[in-house]
Amino acid sequence: MPTKTSIQNIGQFLGQSVTLQGWLYNKRSSGKIVFLQLRDGTGTIQCVAVKAELPEEVFQICQSLKQEASLRVTGEVKEDERAQNGYELTVQSVELLHQSDDYPISLKEHGVDFLLDHRHLWIRTPRQRAILKIRSEVLQAMTLFFSENGFTRVDPPILTPTSCEGTSELFHTQYFDEDAYLTQSGQMYMEAAAMALGKVYSMGPTFRAEKSKTRRHLIEFWMIEPEMAFVDHDENMRIQEQFVSYIVQHVLKHCAIELKTVGRDISILQNVQPPFPRMTYDEAIKWLNDNNYEIAWGEDFGAPHETALAAQFDRPVFIERYPTAIKAFYMQPDPDRPEVALCADLLAPEGYGEIIGGSERIHDFALLEKRFEEHQLPKEDYDWYLDLRRYGSVVHSGFGIGLERTVAWICGLEHVREAAAFPRMLYRLKP
Q: Which residues, other chains included, contact 111 with Cβ-Cβ below 8 Å and sequence gap of 6+?
C-alpha cells in the first residue's frame, strides 16, 4: 500500500508511490495530459495525469475536477527543479471525495469587501495561507524565546472590572449584576504574576473600541505582554531588541517558501539584529522640526511622524523618554527629569509604526497613589494593584507587542487585516 504523507514531507519519498489528500487549487490540460495543482495545507504540488498511463475512468475524473474539489491522489514522487518544493507527483490513481461546484473565489481579481465577506474561503489561497503560517511561526518563536530565557506563561482574564490604560475605549458588558469590560491589556495582572514568578508573559486577544479605520488598526487583536521583576528601563529595551531579532531570524529560517509567496524582500529582514538605534523623544522632536514636520514638544507622534523617524534606519528604532503627560499613569518618571517617563516605543521600518510599547513601571506606593488622584481613577477599583507596591515592591518593567502589526511588518503587508484569520474591524463582524 502506498504511504500516506503530506506535501511538506514529500521529499522523503523520492521514487516511491505515496498518497496525498487535499484540495484542487488549479487545473490545466493539454488534452492528453492534465496538470493538477494540489494543496493540503502544508504546501502545494503539481500532480501530472497522463491519459496513456491511466484507466479511462481515472483520467475522466481528473478532467472533471473543479476548483477546491477534495480528492485523494496516489502517484510516484519525482524531482522537478522548476517546482517550488522541488518535486511533482506522477498520478497513478485519483479518488474524488467531494466535488466543488461554483466556487465563489475564482482565480481572478476580486474586490476587498468581497474577499473579506468570503474570508472563510479566502484563507485557502496561497498568499493567505503563507501569512497564517508565518503568524504561527512568529508565535512559536515568541514561545521559544520566553522558554529559553526563564519566563513563565500566565493567562490573564479577558473580562475585567476596570481599564488598564485609564481610557473609555472599552467594550462594555454586563457581568451578572455588575459592569465588566473586554480587556484592552493584561499588563496589571502580569505585574502581579511577576511578583510571584519573576519573569512572566501572556499571549491572547485584546480589544480596543477605537473608531479607527487605518491600515494599522484592528478592533480585536493579539497582544504578547511580558513583565519582569528586577528589570529597569535600559534592560527592558535590551530584552526587547533580542526578542524581536530572535523572532525575525526564526521566521527567515523556517518560512523561506512562505516569505517568497508573499513577495517579501528578505534582505530587509536580515538586517534586524541588535543593537537597535535609539532616539530620545527630545531628539525626535528636533529631527522632525528640522525636516519640515511641525510638531510641538508634548505632542504625541502620528503615523507620518513615526514613518519618517523610522525611515532613517535599516532596522527597528527605539524612541524613549516621552513626556509623562502623554503616557499611561503607571509609567515610572525619570528621577533626574520627572517630566519624562522611563518608557520607549519600538518603531518598525517601512512605515509600519509602533510594534512595541514598554516602560519601567512605578514601584513607589506614594507616587502611584498620587497618579491615581491625578488621573481621577477610583482607588477602590485599583486597590489590589496598589498592594503590589505595599508588599515587597521592586523595580520592574514590561512591554506589549502587537502580534498582527508584527506579522504585517515581517510579511510586508499593506494592511494589518491580512495578519488575522478573521479580522475584526470597524463595521465588520463577519464572518
A: none
The domains located in the chain, with CATH, are: 3-98 (2.40.50.140), 119-419 (3.30.930.10)
**Grid cell for residue 12:** 522523503
User: What are the angstrom distances between the C-alpha of 335 and each of 184, 331, 340?
Assistant: 29, 12, 9
Residue 183: closest CA among 202, 206, 167: 206
Helix axes 303-310, 281-290, angle to 10 degrees: 90
pLDDT digits (tens, 9 = 90+) for 90-149: 999 999 999 999 999 988 889 999 999 999 999 999 999 999 999 999 999 999 999 999
Determine what percent of the chain falls in helix, strand and coil, rounding each to the nearest 5.
35, 30, 35
What is the rounded distance in angstroms from the CA atom of residue 345 to the CA atom of residue 325? 15
**What is the C-alpha separation between 9 and 12, in angstroms, rounded?**
6
Q: Round to the nearest angstrom and report the end-to-end CA distance of the chain.
A: 41
Dist. CA 45–CA 84, nearest whole Å: 8
**Entry pTM:** 0.94
Q: How confident is the model at residue 164 (pLDDT cuts 50, 70, 90)?
A: low
